[in-house]
């Protein structure tokens, strides 16, 4: 690969991961605005989150197969096109159904781009794959940190969330432009065929890890998407809606800061404690910090930063345990993405429904239940040697 091509791959990798982190971490902040803008109920917000996750799930299932058949560049182009169309369409949606439809398209685009970008790293950086995975995740974390602050600045100047989505669409269009000039050899995607899936589904130890990841993602999605709405609903003395919206954005950004730091040092934590001990300890820490943060929501809202740190190491640690339980690592990664989609969709539906019926405070507290479930599951997860199949 020429130096010019390498720089294009760098640009695609880092820009895409930055945008994916930013979009994932601002859905809740934007939905809080959309809640008032087009009159969404809490159930409809839950449906939107579930629809987004279903789009992500469908794309995750199909991208590996079509990357293998059509090539990496083809799937990156499809994913970026879906993101651009979905972002522009969502920015112009003034009805619930239009917003719902285009939100699904965004989910499809993000799922396709994420799986494609994950495939780029081992394909083009074989000898430095570990380093590139860390750097890519760092850019994902930077996106999580920066974009809530950008949104808060926009809202403080009365700039609509719709402009934010249009601006992101412009950046995605630039990604599409670079893709048209990039020459990529046809590369194998993640092998996610039905036969391998069925074999994995019959392995109870693997299914335990998948169940853990499903409830972990449910907790993460519930927090990131519903916290801004929950906090804006609180009756805080002398705080206007605009001030609560700004504080909510800062909390999400601060959560992302410690979440990213935790991802950086997670490897050292695993080496020190062991993967299973890390899973148990940080699952318990997640529950403790969440309960304390919830109790201190009026006194010191930034306690949720500690919850972000506790959650940071769980997904990569559980994923590492799971992939070593089988020689079908590609299919296992596909199953992990499936669990992510299902967990996020489940959280959106349940928290939205409960919030509509019993109030947003009750719905948000469901997050504690999700963390309790994956804490219990962590005790039953067992590590497997590298030779396990």
Folded structure, characterized:
- This protein has helices at residues 3-37, 42-70, 72-91, 96-124, 129-156, 161-180, 194-201, 204-233, 241-273, 275-295, 304-312, 314-323, 329-358, 360-378.
- It is an all-alpha fold and 389 residues long.
- It has 2 domains: 1-189, Growth Hormone, Chain: A (Up-down Bundle); 191-388, Up-down Bundle (Growth Hormone, Chain: A).
- The longest helix has 35 residues, at 3-37.
- The mean pLDDT is 84.
- The chain has 14 helices and no strands.
Q: How would you concisely characterize the structure shown here?
A:
This protein is mainly α and about 400 residues long.
Give descriptors for this structure.
389 residues, 2 domains, 14 helices, Growth Hormone, Chain: A, membrane, 83% helix
Class based on secondary structure composition and strand pairing:
mainly alpha
Mean pLDDT, to the nearest integer, reads 84
Taken as a percent bin, the fraction of beta residues is under 5%
CATH topology of the largest domain: Growth Hormone, Chain: A
Assign an overall shape.
Answer: globular
Total helical segments: 14
Listing every helix as H and every strand as E from the N terminus to the C terminus, the arrangement reads HHHHHHHHHHHHHH
Distance between the termini: 35 Å
Which architecture of the largest domain would the CATH scheme give at its second level? Answer: Up-down Bundle
| Helix fraction bin | over 70%
Radius of gyration: 20 Å
